[in-house]
Design a protein that fits this description.
By secondary structure, the chain is of the alpha/beta class. It has helices at 19-32, 56-67, 88-98, 110-113, 122-128, 146-149, 153-158, 171-180, 190-198, and strands spanning 6-12, 36-41, 73-75, 103-109, 130-134, 160-162. Helix 3 packs parallel to helix 5 (122-128). It binds adenosine-5'-triphosphate and magnesium ion.
Length: 208
């Protein structure tokens, strides 16, 4: 990207992608005047190791179906299984070297910030990118929370909190709905819904 451009990254399992992800990406993009948002599906999420995760190819395909109508959205295969980048810190280092003169914003929901202490080398992340935390129903950024209380002051100075339209939608709920034969219509793009049914995803249930 050109010098001075603003790049945002949103990482996740996207199992499956839904309107919560898309609203977060689009509203953060507009509010922060970001040029491009890159969705990075995790290969083998280190924090979901004990849990079954749908094949990377299916998650990637659903992301493509969900984002193809937004010219500011892109998908990265940096964390494709086998490529070796499965920690955020490594991915951001790589993006930094690919885009040396670009501001990088790391987007996450409030729930993700509450797990930041489990991320590899998270203290170093703040030097590589700016954090943008978007509101998510049921998760409150309360500095008395022990994880947040441990965050260095420079994080609070640098981190932006962005209010987005509330979407009480999660991939976990969508997977459970499919397994139980309940509707998922209007929780995610119609093309993704069709893909899920055409490929028989989530029907058997995957929760442990
Ligand atoms: P799961 O239930 O499997 O954990 P999820 O819905 O939380 O899925 P992830 O792929 O874990 O989706 O999330 C990727 C990123 O998107 C995280 O930073 C998460 O906080 C954010 N996010 C997901 N859903 C929402 C939502 N409804 N509102 C705001 N942010 C969201
Ligand atoms: Mg999640």
């Amino acid at each position: 990207m050109e010098a001075g451009a603003k790049l945002a990254v949103i990482g996740g399992t996207f199992d499956p992608v839904h309107y919560g992800h898309l609203i977060a990406a689009e509203h953060a993009r507009v509010q922060l005047d970001i040029d491009k948002v890159i969705f990075i599906p995790t290969g083998r999420p280190p924090h979901k190791i004990s849990q079954a995760v749908t094949d990377w190819e299916h998650r990637l395909m659903m992301l493509q179906l969900a984002t193809s109508d937004n010219p500011a959205f892109e998908i990265s295969s940096l964390e494709e299984p086998g490529r070796g980048f499965s920690y955020t810190i490594d991915t951001i280092h790589r993006l930094r070297s690919l885009n040396p003169a670009t501001a990088i914003y790391f987007l996450m929901g409030a729930d993700a910030l509450l797990t930041i202490d489990t991320w590899k080398d998270y203290q170093q992340l703040i030097a590589l990118c700016s954090f943008v935390v978007v509101t998510r129903p049921q998760y409150v950024i309360d500095r008395s929370n022990p994880v947040l209380a441990d965050l260095p002051e420079e994080w609070w100075l640098q981190m932006r909190q962005v209010e987005i339209p509330a979407m009480d939608i999660s991939s976990t709920d969508i997977r459970r709905r499919v397994a139980a034969g309940r509707t998922i219509k209007y929780l995610l793009p119609g093309l993704v819904e069709e893909y899920i049914f055409a490929n028989d995803l989530y029907r058997g249930g995957m929760e442990t």
